[in-house]
Structures are given as C-alpha cells and as structure tokens.
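Following up on my earlier thread - several people asked me to post the actual chain instead of describing it. Fair enough. Here it is, all 133 residues.
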Amino acid sequence: MTITIYHNPDCGTSRNTLAMIRQSGEEPEVILYLETPPSRDKIRELVAAAGLTVRQALRQKDTPFASLGLDDPALDDEALLDAIEGHPILLNRPIVVTPKGVRLCRPSEVVLEILPNPDIGPFTKEDGEVIVA
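Reply from S.P.:
Thanks for posting it. Predicted structure:
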C-alpha cells in the first residue's frame, strides 16, 4: 500500500501529520512539494479528490495571497492554478493520499479518517495537544 504526503517540513501541521502516519505503522512517500511542485493536472486531481475547490486549497497565511490579489472572487480556477504554479507555497498542506481517500489534513488529525490503521494510540502534537485516536 502506498501513502503519499505533500509535505512542508517547516510546517508544524505537516510534521504532526507525517508523525501520525508513521505512528500508524506506515512509511509514506514524502513529496517536498515546494522543491518538487505537483503539476497543474495533479493539483486539479488532488483538490477534486479531496472534495475541495481550487480556492479552498489556497493557503493565505505567510504566502503572497494578498499581494497577488487572490481574494478577488472573479478569479477563476485557471488564474488560481497559474498563481500556485508560480508560487507553490500557495498550495495548502499537508495533502495526504491513501487507498482510503485524499484529504487536506488541517488539522493534522484529519489524516486518521483515511489511514488504513487509524488506531495509532495516544499522540501528542508538537504544541502539546494530546490526540487520542
């Protein structure tokens, strides 16, 4: 079985999600999406499979979202995808793909919905929050 995480190691939510996957007994394929951005078609596929719109998959915090005027509701998916291609940091993370589905794992415990073995036992996030699966 293959689990894939589109990961940013500088993001606490992404690190917590990766740790939960590993605590479930799986070693995922880790894609450092800022270094190896997914293609436009792959982004479309991931977003649709996660049940999101392209706009919902945009990250606003600590990105050029505002400076690029991406809050303009008139911008269509193609314009938003153009922005993500130019600035991969705009793609929210972590996105996890498993045989059970695709999720934007915010908060990180959303990953438990799609792990083959979601019974990971007690887990404490980096910020000290205890998650009991």
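The mean pLDDT is 96. That should answer part of your original question.
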